[in-house]
Every structure is written in structure tokens, then in C-alpha cells.
Design goal:
The protein folds into two domains: 258 residues, 3-Layer(aba) Sandwich (Rossmann fold), CATH 3.40.50; 141 residues, no CATH class. Helices cover 50% and strands 13% of the residues. The chain has 13 helices and twelve strands. α4 runs parallel beside α5 and α9 crosses α11. The relative contact order is 0.11.
Length: 456
């Protein structure tokens, strides 16, 4: 590619706003390097010819094997496949392959490193966030790769006001396009924005453009933009432009030229439907190798998602098991505390019974030698013994109800009354009292819980 290389896309036309120095019908040539690396803007109301102008420029670039990537917001550029082998990616089944943001780096690599023209069709995504993420990641990878490659390359963005609006917040995709507009040129990355509403496009982008095409505009706010940039005479004349006519403003030309752009040669997929049947053209297909490279990414993504789903399912099972075990542990702790309390109560009762039935010490005077007032106390104590025995029997009944026949408070009391050795042996009984009942009650609790808990 030489710096003097050009493409012919239009002819000079006559009418208000043009120049008298150039004869009507004179071919209009655009320098290729400035197109590929510069910043352009094409605007006009619906039906004025802006998409045709973009297609004519693209056809000329493709004829000379210059690389381009088209962000298609309305699904109207697939008609280029009638004459060119272009990789059409997006969300629709009509695309060569369905892609997501995971494919962005590979898309950028194919476009830049393998010189594959690509239509990035974002019209089929039901969620705008998915489309914006795909554009963001693709533009980001293009910018990053161009910093190293420094290869002239053109990014065309339809309906650019959706990404770089004059009013309202700008998303990450729009910020990336603004970055390319400001810094892409020195790396070889050019960008062209296309919109039917110049008043809705961020003015920072428009005023930085190297070349602009103004097709017919009739809305007052839009013609005001023309007046501010071109002058009041063009604000009036832009309303009277015919289909395909436009004012061409470029840094490489000192004049504002009124031109008539050529008609595109490929199928016009963006034409307004009429009553007659539209015959769909036969579209060129891309090589299987190109599609297979992107398919591998899709397959790898599907495999990762399947593995993640399996891991999530396994994690849910483990969390459910942990929850169940924590509940069982809490139940066991409750039962253990109950057993400790019961064993402590039995120990206290048995010690009380031992103190009441133990013989007096050698230095303690016999009951007959006690004073009269102490005889009454002894009589009172003797009278309490049947009550203690009754309490022990009650405790035994309670123990039988909970612990079974293998251990009773009477056994415990006998052990305590049997002397120091048997008393020490008795101190280990509460531990034995805990083990068996906890197992029994835990099993019973599980059985009750399994019957009362609904199945998930």
C-alpha cells in the first residue's frame, strides 16, 4: 500500500452548497491510508443513503484486500457476502458462527493477523449487555494488538450514537471507541461512526473526525449541528439533498464538496421492504478452518460451563451434608448436657443417701449419750430417712425410664456406700451413663427428623 493509493466512491454533483471550481461528474477519490487510519463520520436520516455510502467505501476497500471489521447493529451488511468472503459472526443462526465475548480475542486476531474481513453482527443479541461486552472486548483486543502490529485497519460502527451518546451516561464500549478515536490513529487503527442523528452523537467524537459525510437531514436539532460545523448555508442546503447525495468534508481537501455517491454493487440487505418479493442472493461461505477455530472456543466454553455446573451441584450436596451434621452435633450436645445434669442429680441424691445411712465416727458420742435436745434432732433425722429412701426410689424410676436396666441410682448409691475403692469406681459411672443414652436418643432424633423433614 502506498500513501498515494486512492479509491473512487462518488462524483461531484451540482446544487447549492457545492463548489463552482470542480465540474459536475468529476470523480471523487479518497486516500486509502487516511480512510484506514483516520476518524470518519457518516450521517443522514433514514433512507438518505448513509448505509449505501458506507457499503460503497467498504466494497472498494475489500476489492483491494484491505482489512475491515464492521459492527452491524441492524443486520444489514451481510449482503457483502454476495461478492466477498467475509466471516459473519453474531448471535443469529444466519451467522457463520454464534459468538460471545469469549471469542473477542480470536476475532481480533483473525481480522488483524490473518487479514480476514469480519461482520460483527450485534443485532441478534436479546440482552444489550451481551452485545456491548462483545464490542468492548473486540475493540479492546484490536487496540492492544495494533499497538504492536501498527497495521492500517478500519473499524466501522453502525448506530454509533448508541455507544457514544451526547446525553446520558456512556458505557465501557463507548469509552473504548472514544479512546480509539483519540489514540488509534498513531497505531494504525481507524474508526468510522455512522448515525442518523448527529445531535445524539457525542460532539467530542464528531469534532475530532478527519472526514465527514453529511446526507439529508431535516430535524431542526440535526441541521443546527450542520450549521455549527459547516456554516448556515449548508444547514439549509442539507435538507434538500437527494438520495445518495452528501456534503463531503475532509482534512485532505480544502473545499466542501457536494457529491453523489455510487450505488453499492452487492445485495442491499438494509433496503426498506416493498410489496414485491425479494430474492435472496447466494452468499459466499468462509472456509471451514476459520469457523473451526472459533468453534473450538465455543466447545471449550461449553466444557468449562459443564464442569462448573457439576462443581456447583457437588458443592450444594456438601453444604447440605454439613448443615445436617451441624444440626446432629447440636442435638448431641443438647443430649449430652441433659445427661450430665441427670448424672449430677443422681450423684447428689446418692451422696445424700450415703450420709444418712453411714455409721457415726468413733469420736462421735452415741445417740444414748447425747443431750436431750440432740436426741430430738436425731429422732428428726431418723424420721427423714424413709423420705430419702423414697426419693432414691423415685430417682431410680426416672433412671430406668431414660437409661434402661443396666444402671440405676440404687446401684450408684451402693457403689458410693461401699467404701473408698467403690466410691472411686462410682465416679466413672456418669461417663458411662452418657454414652449409651446419647446414642439411643440421637438415633431417635434422626428418625424423627427424617420423617418430619420434607424431601428436597
Amino acid at each position: 500500500m502506498t500513501s498515494e493509493e486512492t479509491i473512487t466512491v462518488a462524483d461531484v454533483s451540482v446544487g447549492p452548497g457545492g463548489t463552482d471550481e470542480i465540474n459536475a461528474g468529476t470523480p471523487v477519490e479518497l486516500p486509502v491510508v487516511d480512510l484506514l487510519t483516520g476518524r470518519g463520520f457518516i450521517t443522514g436520516k433514514s433512507g438518505s443513503g448513509k448505509s449505501n455510502t458506507a457499503s460503497v467505501i467498504l466494497e472498494n476497500l475489500l476489492d483491494n484486500n484491505f482489512p475491515v471489521l464492521i459492527v452491524d447493529s441492524d443486520g444489514e451488511y451481510y449482503g457483502l457476502k454476495e461478492a466477498y468472503e467475509i466471516l459473519h459472526v453474531g448471535a443469529d443462526e444466519e451467522c457463520d458462527i454464534q459468538v460471545t465475548a469469549d471469542h473477542a480475542e480470536k476475532i481480533a486476531s483473525l481480522a488483524l493477523e490473518e487479514n480476514i474481513p469480519i461482520i460483527l453482527d450485534v443485532s441478534g443479541y436479546l440482552d444489550d449487555d451481551d452485545a456491548n461486552e462483545l464490542l468492548l472486548e473486540t475493540a479492546r483486543h484490536l487496540f492492544a494488538k495494533e499497538k504492536k502490529l501498527k497495521k492500517p485497519f478500519l473499524l466501522v460502527v453502525e448506530e454509533c450514537h448508541e455507544y457514544i451518546p451526547e446525553q446520558g451516561g456512556m458505557g465501557e464500549a463507548g469509552k473504548m471507541l472514544i479512546k480509539i478515536g483519540k489514540r488509534g490513529r498513531k497505531h494504525g487503527l481507524g474508526v468510522v461512526g455512522i448515525s442518523q442523528r448527529p445531535a445524539d452523537v457525542k460532539k467530542d467524537f464528531i469534532t475530532q473526525c478527519d472526514w465527514l459525510v453529511w446526507h439529508r437531514l431535516t430535524w431542526r436539532n440535526d441541521t443546527k449541528v450542520v450549521g455549527r460545523i459547516l456554516g448556515s448555508e449548508y444547514a439549509d442546503a442539507v435538507e434538500e439533498l437527494g438520495d445518495g447525495e452528501g456534503f463531503l468534508v475532509a482534512d485532505w481537501s480544502a473545499d466542501i464538496r457536494r457529491v453523489q455517491f455510487h450505488r453499492k454493487e452487492t445485495f442491499d440487505a438494509g433496503a426498506t421492504p416493498g410489496l414485491e418479493d425479494i430474492e435472496q442472493p447466494e452468499l459466499k461461505s468462509v472456509s471451514d478452518d476459520l469457523v473451526s477455530e472459533l468453534t473450538e472456543i465455543s466447545d471449550e466454553k461449553a466444557r468449562r460451563e459443564s464442569e462448573l455446573a457439576d462443581l456447583r451441584q457437588e458443592l450444594d450436596k456438601k453444604e447440605a451434608t454439613i448443615t445436617q451434621l451441624e444440626q446432629e452435633l447440636e442435638d448431641a450436645r443438647d443430649l449430652s448436657r441433659m445427661a450430665d445434669q441427670f448424672a449430677q442429680a443422681m450423684l447428689q441424691r446418692s451422696e445424700a443417701a450415703y450420709r444418712q445411712t453411714a455409721p457415726p465416727a468413733e469420736n462421735e458420742p452415741a445417740a444414748a449419750d447425747q443431750p436431750a435436745d440432740r436426741s430430738a434432732t436425731a429422732d428428726t433425722r431418723a424420721g427423714e430417712r424413709p423420705t430419702a429412701t423414697a426419693d432414691t426410689t423415685g430417682a431410680q424410676t426416672t433412671a430406668d425410664g431414660v437409661f434402661g436396666d443396666d444402671l440405676t441410682p440404687a446401684d450408684f448409691a451402693t457403689a458410693v456406700a461401699g467404701g473408698d475403692d467403690r466410691r472411686r469406681q462410682a465416679m466413672t459411672i456418669p461417663l458411662a451413663m452418657r454414652k449409651t443414652p446419647i446414642r439411643r436418643l440421637t438415633a431417635r432424633s434422626r428418625s424423627i427428623r427424617s420423617r418430619s423433614t420434607p424431601q428436597r
